[in-house]
């Protein structure tokens, strides 16, 4: 084992399933102590238990990333349990059913923006004082190819993911000289429950583009986790404010 995160303390939101679960487990495999956070506490507990059973260190907490009080409580609990936070992975996210503007209610807009954009903002704002006090840290945000191009989601989702990339760049610019690195991952289609939702709800042209990527397949969550690991450890020490596309070639055709 390379133990690229040996001794690090990592918080992962959306850790109960999909990419968040894969990232939490990958971080633990590389030596990190992990706080597995999710709105679904039972799912977070399952992830933490699987890490512990594999010989790692983890615990679980419930968090609603769109609620500031919940976020602050989760960060405080993580600091207490872990003894600090070196890595934050903002992975929690939801889809909008590919709704265009005229089919996007204010309630749907607020829900998507609340989880997918406000969530990373609140988590980042809550963790920064601890990271700055400790001399630095690493933040990995989950964006999407919808942060670059249209048709990766609906109006709310695409707007939120564009915002995540902007938040990533601005936070990196504001805090880079103080030891904070911030980068984003921009996946295409990944084989998760959310992908099934895309295939169930997406327009025919969208589904066709997903299925016709040059890679010829969807990504596995573990492949996204490998990129998250790179951005979280010192191998990426000169990477600041980047948005890494990992889409099997979706955006080049």
From TrEMBL:
Gene3D superfamilies, A to Z: NAD(P)-binding Rossmann-like Domain
Keyword annotations of the record: Oxidoreductase, Plasmid
PANTHER family to which the protein is assigned, alphabetical: DEHYDROGENASES, SHORT CHAIN, ESTRADIOL 17-BETA-DEHYDROGENASE 8-RELATED
GO molecular function, one term: oxidoreductase activity
One matching Pfam family: adh_short_C2
Highest taxon of source: Bacteria
Protein name as annotated: 2-hydroxypropyl-CoM dehydrogenase
Family the entry assigns: Belongs to the short-chain dehydrogenases/reductases (SDR) family.
